[in-house]
Every structure is written in C-alpha cells, then in structure tokens.
Amino acid sequence: MLPNRYQNLNLIQQLDPVKDHSQIYHLMSGYEFSWEMQRSLEIALMRTYCVPSMSKLLDKTKEFYQRPQKRYDDTSILLVEIVKWGYESDRGKQALQRMNAIHGRFKIDNADFLYVLSTFIYDPIHWNANFGWRLMCEQEKLACFYFWREVGKQMQIQNIPETYAEFEHYKLDYERENFRYSDTNRRVGEATLGLFLSWFPRWMEKPLKPIIYALLDETMLDAFGFEHPSPLLRSSIVRLLKFRARLMHLLPPRSQTNFYIDSPIPSYPNGYEIANVGPDDKGK
C-alpha cells in the first residue's frame, strides 16, 4: 500500500459531517469510491423498481422501453451535477429545479419519495461494508445521511427522519411492507437488465445475466420474478468483488475526479444543458 493511500480519509476525518457533508460526499463519490458508488446506486435504483406503485408509473411513461440509455443518463446527470458541484451551487440548483419539474408532472406519494431518498444513503454504505477497498468512516456514513437529507428538503419531501438510525429503520420497514411481485416490476426490471447487458458485447449477454442476478438480494429477485442464482455463483461474485477491493487498496489515490459526467455521455455526445436533460414537456 502506498503511504498516501489514506490522505483523503485523513482529511475527511477532520471535517464535520453535519457542516461539511457536501465536501465529504464529494470526496467519497469523486475520489475514494467512485466506481463503488456508481454500481451501488444502480442497484439502489433497481431496488425502487421492486415497489409496484413506482414500477407502475415508470411502466406507464414507456421511457425504459423506448430510450433506456437516455433514461439512465438523464437520471445520472441530474444526480451527479448535485453531488459534484453541491446542492447550493448554481449547477446544483439548476439540477434540482429540473428534477423537481420532471417529478412535478406525476402524482408521487411522499412515502415513495422518502424511500428512494433512503436508498441513496444506505445502499452505497451497504455495498461498502461488503466490497469497499476500505470501510467508510463514521464521518462518511453520516455525511451520506446529511447530504441526501438536505437534497430531500430541497425537493420538498416531507417528514424526512431526523437521525441516521431512524431513516434506516424507515427504509427497512418500507421494504418489508411494499416489496412484492408485479408484472410492471418485471417489465421495468427486464428493461433495466437489458440496458446493463447492452454495455457489453452480445456474446456476453447469456453469462452476464445470472451474474447481475447474483448482485440482487433475494427480496429483489422475488419482487422482479427473476431466477435465483446458484449459491456457488453468488459466493464466487462476492469473492471476485472482495479480490478487486484488495487490489484497489494497493493503488494510489485518485488525482482527478471520476464522476459520471466527467466522461463522454452516450445520450449527449455533444454535451448538454441541464434545463434540457430529461423527457420532453410531454414526458415522452
């Protein structure tokens, strides 16, 4: 391990997770755990499709079937603009305004908004506990909570729990009460799975599909109606991700950020304006 491998951690541990949560979350997402955060948030978004009330709305828009890559890019852009620049920055405020305008077209229950917000906090923390090259420190976990809690307030989400533990309890209770199979879950889940597979050569589709299943927990697989992978495959994927973590431990810290918007975006090869990200005015 290189001697400066923990330089960002040392800085983070000197910051206040309440007052400095945007700076901490920026360091985590752009430098320390960029690949891990992106993968875990992909799982987090899939988790929200296990709720029939949410998948029914997404199924109705047809975005997942007609333009799956653009739907993925639009979501990623708006979220990452907020994370990279901060919700108080000009770009962060524009992204929040655009997100609120898109959501405002639909009748979405506050409890569903709360649940989606909770997945952005706890799914990356859970992924890190299992596959991180180092464990998140307490400041980082709390920064996840305070960052997304403040974003939730900017989105006019009501009744956001006041503490880290209380919000985590809400998330677990919500999943127990709302995760169940529906045909719309399956359709949206299969469309998302198809998007993930489209990033690889076609010959890899068949072997990759069960690997993706192995990254989903049992309750998600049941809610989607997906085949359960073998215990051997699931344990092999766990070992592979843990091996990757050990290799990452030996690499030097990033010198530049690695946010999704730092690389060319498939749906916007010539760049984008935040005000034009997302579906058109008719939501199509």
Mean pLDDT score, rounded? Answer: 94
In percent, how helical is the residue content?
55-70%
With helices defined by DSSP (H or I, 4 residues minimum), what is the helix count? 14
- Class by helix and strand content? mainly alpha
Compressed to H and E, one letter per element, the order equals HHHHHHHHHHHHHH
Which overall shape is indicated by the principal axes computed on the Cα atoms?
globular
**Unreliable parts:** none
Distance between the termini: 50 Å
Alpha-carbon Rg, integer = 19 Å
Q: How many domain modules?
A: 1
Largest sheet: none
Compute the number of strand runs.
Answer: 0
Strand content: under 5%
Organism: Nostoc cycadae WK-1
Pfam families: MPAB_Lcp_cat
GO molecular function: oxidoreductase activity
Protein name: L-aspartate oxidase
Give an account of the 3D structure.
By secondary structure, this protein is an all-alpha fold. 65% of the residues lie in helices and 0% in strands. It is built from 14 helices and no strands. It has helices at residues 7-12, 21-32, 34-48, 52-61, 63-66, 68-85, 90-103, 110-131, 138-154, 164-178, 183-198, 205-214, 218-224, 231-248. Helix 2 crosses helix 3 (34-48) and helix 4 (52-61) packs across helix 11 (183-198).
Would you spell out the secondary-structure blueprint of this structure?
Blueprint: H1 7-12, H2 21-32, H3 34-48, H4 52-61, H5 63-66, H6 68-85, H7 90-103, H8 110-131, H9 138-154, H10 164-178, H11 183-198, H12 205-214, H13 218-224, H14 231-248
Helix pairs in contact: 2-3, 2-9, 3-8, 4-11, 6-7, 8-9, 8-10
Q: What are the salient characteristics of this protein?
A:
284 residues, 65% helix, 0% strand, globular, MPAB, MPAB/Lcp_cat_dom, oxidoreductase activity, L-aspartate oxidase
